[in-house]
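We append the chain.
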Amino acid sequence: MSTLSGTIYPHLLKPSGGNATERESRDSSRPSELHIDTGYLEASVVGPPATHSISRSGSEGSVFVGLPLTVCDSTSVRIYQAGEAGSPEAGHFIRMDWSDDKVTFSADVLGVRTCYFARVGKNFHFSTDLSELCRRTYNTAIQQSAFASHWLGINQLSHECLIGGIERIAPGETFTITSKGIARAHVGSDSSTVPQENFLDALIPFLNFSERRTSLGLSGGLDSRTLLSLLVSNGVDFQLHSFGESDHPDNRLAATIARSLGIERVTLPNSSHTGDLAMAQ
């Protein structure tokens, strides 16, 4: 999985645009590293090239890290590349756009990828790797309210960062930095279309994405088995996928369930670059 880290110098951003000198380089000895320097923005992207892309046009540019997806047809998707028309329709990613007057970050609507920010003096430091930002800013104090929402849970019940003095982007949020300050906006769903009286009634419409075939990540745990039951009982055309070694207890259970239901299932291998790179390959 690629990581994005860097520093923004807001006082060098020009309110009405300007002519910043922009440099982009990739270390030939380390092709997985990309460096950007515009004067007001210093950033580096580190990781497998399959899990990041960059586009530039004049003094503007954009970077994606993660796995943004675009739909090809009713049965297939491909990785979205920075600079393409439109926006990713699915996947998990962090996007950074820059111009002479602002730098904007945005997250996928599921919040699988996030980016962290900390202000030190007049400057903003950022990273998709929390430990990297802690090293840059020396922030190490646990934020108890956020930690409590995460305790013994896989998913946080709060969008607060676990470390004090550091902020994080929420799912579907944009975070814009200009010479005048920061602006945050959230892209939410239309709640008027979601029935409020029954949780299952609200969930079921999201299980079948038009003509696209659904793939459910089955781990053998309660959450994925609940979704599996809903998919089967509602007649959705889908397949199953799991991550990791085939002899892992979760995967053995998932394989047993798939065989008993006669549903196609694939196993994506773990590696030093799990998740994004496995899906990209």
In short: The first helix runs from residue 130 to 137.
